[in-house]
Each structure stands twice: as C-alpha cells, then as structure tokens.
Amino acid sequence: MTYRHGVYASQVPTSITPPRKVSASLPVVVGTAPVHLAKDGTGPVNKVTMVYTYSEAVELLGYSDAWEKYTLCEFIYSHFALFALAPIVFINVFDPAVHKTDVAEGEATFADGEIKLDHGDLLGPVVVKSQDKATTYVEDTDYEVDRVAGVIKRVTTGVITAGATINRTYTYADPSKVTAADIVGGVDGATGKLTGLELVNEVFPKYRLVPGLIVAPGWSSASTVSAVMTAKAKNVNGMFGCKAIIDIDDATVTRYSDAPEYKNLNNLTDAAQIVCWPKVKLGKKTFHMSTQLAGLIAQVDADNEDIPYASPSNHNFQMDAMVANGEEVWLQPEQANYLNGNGIVTALNFIGGWKCWGNRTACYPANTDPKDAWISVSRMFAWVGNTLILSHWSKLDAPAKRRLIETIRDSAQMWLDGLVSRQFLLGARVEFQADENAVTDMMDGISRFHVYMTPPSPAREIDFIQEYDPAYFSTLFA
C-alpha cells in the first residue's frame, strides 16, 4: 500500500436510488388504420408506433371516419380529441398490399359528368377504357378520380364525350379481409418478425415505456383475441404487468342480464382483465366502451400524478347515450350494480351526467382478493412492481453483499414512504427476511425482498344509519 500522509476524500455510490418514471396508463392499441391515406402514402404495418398528437397520428397512420373498418381511428379521436391525453402506442395490422380486392366493373354511362364506383378507398390507379375497350383514357387528362369516395369525374376538356359509356378496373382497400388471427399475430416463420399482439413486447425496448393498458376496440370481443390480450397483460417482457380492457359483444348481448353469462362462457374471469358493456355514443359517433374507458383511466391517473390509485368509476365518460346493437340502453342503479357485482364495468346516468360505473376486474366475484378484484388496487400492485423493477435493474449482477441489500431495501422503502405520505398508499414496508432467502438460493444468486403495501380501496358503499330519537322532544320545553 502506498504511504499516505494528509487529508483525503473519496466517493461511494449513493445508497438511495431514485425511481424511474412509469406511465401507468400508457395504452397499446391494436387494430386497423388507413395507412394508405397517411401523408407519404404509406404507413407502418405490424410495427410499434408511438404518437403524441392528433396531427402526428393522422400523418403517420392516416384517418377515416369509417371506424367500423379502421378501428384505430376511433381511438385516435377519443384519446386525443375527447380526453386530450398522450402518448399512444399503435399497432396497425392492416396491410394495403395484402388486404385489398381487385374489381373490374362493367359498362356504365356518365351521369352529370361522373360515375360512382361500387367501392371507395381506392388504391393505385383506376383504369378507364372505352365501351369497346379499344381506347384507354388518361387520368387527369380525360378523367379525375376521388379515391376516398370512389367517384370518377369526366374532364370536360378531355376526349371522353358527355354521356360516354366506359369500363373501369381498380383496386380498393379491403380491411374486411383482416381477421382475428391478424390481431393475435405471432412470429413470421420466414423473417422472424413479430406481428399483431406479439409486438406488445417491443414497446419497452423501443420506447422505454411500460404498457399500462392493452386495447383492441372492435376485436377484443373475439375470444381468441381477448385470451392473447390477457396473456400479454399478465407478462409483458416476462416481468411487467398491466391490464387488458375487453368489450362484451353488444351485438350478441343486447340485454344487461345476459352479460354475466357471456362473460363466464367466454372465460372473461381474470384479474388482468377489465370487462365492459355495451357501447357509448357522443352525437353521431359510436365508441366501444373500451376506447373511452382507456381514456378515462388515463385521465384519472393524470389527475393524480400519474399514479393509478384511484378508480375510474363515478367519473364522466364523454358520451350522451349508451347503446347495444344500435339501440339505446338505460340502466337503473340496481341494474348497473348487478353488472358490477359480476365484474363488469358499465355506464350510468343518475347524478352528474353519464359516468363510468364499476370498480371490479373480471375475476370478481369468483376471486375477492382485494389486490386482484379492485381495478385501482390491482393496478397499483402492478405499477409498484413495474417501478421497483425499473428502479433497481441497475443493481442486477452486483456483488450480493450487505451494502447492496441495504441499498435496495432502503431505496424502495423511501420511495414507498413518499407514496404513503401523499396517501397514495395507506402503509408500506420492505423487508429482507431470512426465511424467504435460503442459503442455497443466496448461493445461486437469488435475493428476495418482501414488499407489504395497502392501497386504499374504493368507497363503493357509503351508509347513513338513521334513527328516530324521542329524547329531542325535550327541546320543546327548553
């Protein structure tokens, strides 16, 4: 050792590690978007795409009011225009190169200078020929095409005469060819690339954000889709947890009393699921409830420092009607409570306008464990777990000595103490217990920290007990 004589200073790593920020309600939305209408004429297909603004979403993914065909557009409008929240991660599975149909329409005559094709949403050129097919006319010289509406307009200066009969051949985007299997996705055998819901695992590696909600409006009612959504929500990247928001098919279930049976028959009974019924409307626009519920959950989180300790129940949806299979639905409190008692979230117009109504995950009533059955409590457990993973990832593979154990324990405890002081948790503690850390496990490099925590449960019932007290007659003689 070098001989030393003097006063010295040195540094050691900070024993308390600050937590990383986790977006508790980041929605990962899988569906179809009109990417052929994107700004550059093409868009992402089976790629993870994060956007922060309405205009950015339209530019990258395209937009159409035909929400029944392009389900991601519904979410774009709801999340950005109605709830003003960001960001969103989209996974579009509609591929214009695959999901298309070629059409050769027979003879037709221009009426008022235009011809309406049988389809809109056109891809590529529309080939127009004369009646005898001997002449091929030139687009923009002899005719113009509105590709969105599917209309051919005669150019008066062109060679096509008024009232001419023509033949036309074209290709249109056909999202009806997208199937539930495309939403589920998988691994491409030829390229090894992930598709559909499998891409959920690429969100964190690409953007360093943990999925908070998995949504597939228009598709989640398919049992194959909901099953994979649930599996992904329970095990993102092999370690993170989140929630899958699933719609009960309102075309099949038109009465509230039939919803619990549908829920059980379709295996919608997992704590990782939030199940809702039916759809909601705002003006002339109809939304899957999962779309608006994702927005409302994110809005409630945003109002609480992005901490998911509060339930979305009894907060306002952006709606003016509730519909099942196109017909308005009006639920009384006892009917809505019946759905809640079966683990189904719905909407109620009783006091204060249209509200989200329901606090339970899909596992209720079969599973009444508070950490599983309450939406807010279950989300808090997932969020705390996700945050602890991210905050202490840098400690992996360090020598498992006393300083490491104390640093992890004390860092986690200080962060949890902060949540308790702000009443996001009623109490919490972290312990490194001997009975949970066998010597053989420690030898194998495994350390276990036991986190005790109690998020507040929703005040789902408030009772006022009234009693007639004749003793107050004495006030008459005061």
Question: How would you characterize this protein structure?
Answer:
With 478 residues, this protein is an alpha+beta fold. Helix content is 25%, strand content 22%. The protein has helices at residues 54-61, 71-82, 180-184, 203-207, 223-234, 259-265, 289-302, 333-340, 370-373, 375-392, 402-421, 439-443; strands spanning 27-31, 48-51, 88-92, 100-109, 114-116, 122-130, 143-146, 151-154, 165-173, 186-187, 194-195, 213-215, 243-247, 273-276, 279-282, 285-288, 321-324, 327-328, 344-349, 354-357, 427-431, 450-454. The strands form six sheets. An eight-stranded mixed sheet has the order 2-3-1-12-13-14-19-20, sandwiched between helices. Strands 16-15-17-18 form a four-stranded antiparallel sheet. Strands 4-9-6 form a three-stranded antiparallel sheet, with no helix packed on it. Helix 5 (223-234) links the parallel strand 12 and strand 13 (243-247). The model has no long low-confidence stretch (mean pLDDT 94). This is Phage tail protein. It comes from Desulfoluna limicola.
